Amino acid sequence: MRKKIQRSMVMVLAVTLLLSYTIITIITYNRNIALLEAEVRQEARYIQAAINISGPDYLAEMNGVDWTTRVTQISPEGEVLYDTRRDESTLEDHSGRKEVQEALASGEGEDVRMSDTVGQELYYYALLLDDGTVLRASKSMDGLIGTALNNLPVMAGLAVIMMILAYFMAKWQTNRLVKPIYELDLEHPLENKTYDELTPFLEAMDKQNREKEAVSNMRKEFSANVSHELKTPLTSISGYAEIMKNGMVRPADVPVFSERIYKEARRLIHLVEDIIKLSKLDEESVELEKQEVDLYEMTREIVSRLSPQAQQRNIRMEVTGEPVTYFGIRQILDEMIYNVCENAVKYNNENGRVSVWVGNTLEGPKVTVTDTGIGIPEEHHERIFERFYRVDKSHSKERGGTGLGLSIVKHGALLHGAKVTVDSTPGRGTRIEMQFPRKRQGGNV
C-alpha cells in the first residue's frame, strides 16, 4: 500500500511537470511570435519612412550594416530590386508572393512560410512605398520544437529537483497516512480514532468479531452441554451394570434394572442421533435434492407413528386441513414436523389433545401444531430453539427429551426459508406454526 501511494504521488507530479512543460513551451512560443511580429512591423515602418524621405539610395547607403532582419525591395512587376542577403539579380520573380500582392492591393501584407531561399520558416511583412515599389521585411522564427528544445535544459533541471523533492515528500506523507492504519486495534475496532472512510470497514469488523465471539461461546456451551448430556445416561448405565455385575441385585429386580438400562441406552442413542442431524444441518451436508412433498399425507403418517406414544398417556391426536404440496427436502420436512408433534405429546397433560392443521394460506403452505400441555412462559419463547435449552429440566428428563428437537426444527426452517412462530401460555397449552414460502414459478421456493 505504501509503495502504491508513493508511486501514485510521483506519477501525478511527473504528469504535472510534463503538462507544465508543454503549456510553458506553447505560451513561450506564442509570446515569441507576437514579439517577433511586432519587431518586424516596427522595423519595416522605420525603413519605409527613411526611404520615403531619403529615396531608394537609403538602402544602398545602409548596405554595409549588419541587418538582423532581411530587407527586400520589390518592383510592382515582382522584380527584386534590393535584398540584404543575396545578389538581387539571382532572385526569382516575387510577384506571386502573398504579402507582396496584399501590399500592392491594400498598402501592407504579411505571411508566414518556409523560405526557399534561406531554408527557414520566416515571418514576412510588406509595405507599399511612395514610389510604388514594395518594401518587405522578414525574420526567421524559432519553431515550436526549437522553443521546446530551448526550454528543455531549464525544465529538465527543475524536473529532477522536483522529482527528488516529491520522492521524499511522498515517503513522508505516505508514512503519515498509513500510520493510523498500522496502529489499528483489531480486537476493538470501534475504539480506534482514524479516517471516516474506514468507519464502515471497522463496523463490519466489529460485527464479525461479535459474531465470532458468539459462535465461540455457543460452541463452548454446546460442548459442555453435550458432555453433560452424554455423561448422564452413561453414568446411569454404568452404575446399574456395576450393581448387577457385583451381584447386588435380587433376581426379582433384574427386569427392573434391565428396563432402566434399556431406557438410558435408548435416550443415549436418540441424543447421538440428534447431534449427528444437527451437525449435518450445520455443515449443509444433508442431501439437498428437493422434490414435491404432500405435507398433509406426511403429517398423517407422522401422527400414525406417534400414536403408540400418545396412547400410553391417553392423548388424542387429530389431523385436519387439506392436501398441500410443497417443493422441499423430504427428510428435513419429516424431521421438522415430527419433532414439533413429538414435543406436543411429550409435554402434554394426561388425557390431553394434540391438533395438527395442514393447509394453504396466502403466504404459502402452513403446518400448525396445537396442544393442551404445560405451556411455555413468554420469556422462554425465543430460547426454546437453542440447543439443549430446556424450560423445565426436571420435566424434560422425566419425559425423555434431548433438548435438540426444536433446534433441528429451526435449522430445517432456515434451510427452506420458512418461519417458525410460538404462541404459548403456561397451563393453557402451546401452538407452533411453521409457515413455508409460497411456491414460485419453475417449482423452486
Automatic annotation (TrEMBL):
Keywords: Kinase, Membrane, Phosphoprotein, Transferase, Transmembrane, Transmembrane helix, Two-component regulatory system. Signal peptide: none annotated. The chain crosses the membrane at residues 9-29, 152-170. It is found in: Membrane. CDD domains: HATPase (cd00075), HisKA (cd00082). Its main location: membrane. GO terms for molecular function: phosphoprotein phosphatase activity; phosphorelay sensor kinase activity. Residues 225-440 form the Histidine kinase domain. Its EC number is 2.7.13.3. GO terms for biological process: cellular response to phosphate starvation. Pfam families: HATPase_c, HisKA. The keyword Membrane applies. It catalyses: ATP + protein L-histidine = ADP + protein N-phospho-L-histidine. PANTHER family: PHOSPHATE REGULON SENSOR PROTEIN PHOR (PTHR45453). This is histidine kinase. It comes from Candidatus Mediterraneibacter quadrami.
